[in-house]
Amino acid sequence: MSAPTVGVLALQGDTREHLAALREAGAEAVTVRRLVELERVDALVIPGGESTTMSHLLRELDLLEPLRARLADGMPAYGSCAGMILLASEIADAGVPGREALPLGGIDMTVRRNAFGRQVDSFEDDIDFNGLDGSIHAVFIRAPWVERVGADVEVLARAAGHPVAVRQGRMLATAFHPEVTGDRRVHRLFVESLR
Ligand code: GLN
């Protein structure tokens, strides 16, 4: 089969690292900023950044409802950090009303924004990740954690007892940033699930 076309939502955040990681994982990677670009991709990566800003831009650019519709329709997606927050069905501590992070609803879970931030802003840890050989070096930057998962959601990794990587069907989310480490196993897991 030919390489799947994977979009990276490029409104804000660490787009470039995901494009590189996806290409190394064997995908055709393109940026998505407009509806026509969203319509063309087989799957989407939502990068880290600031979920409130991304939500605002999604609404401004009339992408919010089309993106929700594609996810509801089963378009596979992978979200890291802010992307994990947006892929949730429910967000705790979403932010100031009117400028809050808006759930897109790909994964049946409640995600708490800046959850680790109350203890320590950013940290790195080697954690076990279900389905990957050996541990993975996980970089957390003002990271969320998952507070509730639905029955169909598989927890793949935990940090400090909290779920930080989850999968529901072909939807994947991590609270950490594998794109910044050079370890392509998480991107490969996602890309291979598309074939
Ligand atoms: N705290 C950010 C948010 O609420 C996420 C941080 C990140 O993506 N590194 O969106």
Describe the protein in words.
The chain is built from 6 helices and 12 strands. The protein has helices at residues 15-24, 35-40, 51-60, 64-72, 82-87, 185-193, and strands spanning 5-9, 28-32, 43-46, 77-80, 88-92, 107-112, 122-128, 135-141, 145-149, 154-159, 162-168, 171-174. The chain has one domain: 3-Layer(aba) Sandwich (Rossmann fold). The strands form 3 sheets. It has a 7-stranded mixed sheet with strand order 2-1-3-4-12-11-10. The protein has a 3-stranded mixed sheet with strand order 5-6-9. The mean pLDDT is 96. Bound molecules: glutamine (GLN). Glutamine is lined by residues 48-51, 81-82, 85, 113-114, 141-142.
Q: Which spans have pLDDT < 50 for at least 5 consecutive residues? A: none
Major sheet, described briefly?
7 strands, mixed
Tell me the fraction of residues in β-strands, as a range. 25-35%
**Ligands present:** glutamine
Q: According to CATH, what is the class?
A: Alpha Beta
Q: Helices and strands, in N-to-C order? A: EHEHEHHEHEEEEEEEEH
Helix content: 25-40%
Instruction: Work out the radius of gyration.
Output: 15 Å
CATH architecture: 3-Layer(aba) Sandwich
Give the termini separation. Answer: 7 Å
Total beta strand runs: 12
Round the mean pLDDT to the nearest integer and report it.
Answer: 96
CATH topology: Rossmann fold
Shape from CA axes?
Answer: globular
Alpha-beta content class: alpha/beta
Strand order of the largest sheet: 2-1-3-4-12-11-10
CATH superfamily: Class I glutamine amidotransferase (GATase) domain
Task: Walk me through the topology.
Blueprint: E1 5-9, H1 15-24, E2 28-32, H2 35-40, E3 43-46, H3 51-60, H4 64-72, E4 77-80, H5 82-87, E5 88-92, E6 107-112, E7 122-128, E8 135-141, E9 145-149, E10 154-159, E11 162-168, E12 171-174, H6 185-193
Bound molecules: glutamine (GLN).
Protein name: Pyridoxal 5'-phosphate synthase subunit PdxT
GO molecular function: glutaminase activity; pyridoxal 5'-phosphate synthase (glutamine hydrolysing) activity; transferase activity
Function: Catalyzes the hydrolysis of glutamine to glutamate and ammonia as part of the biosynthesis of pyridoxal 5'-phosphate. The resulting ammonia molecule is channeled to the active site of PdxS.
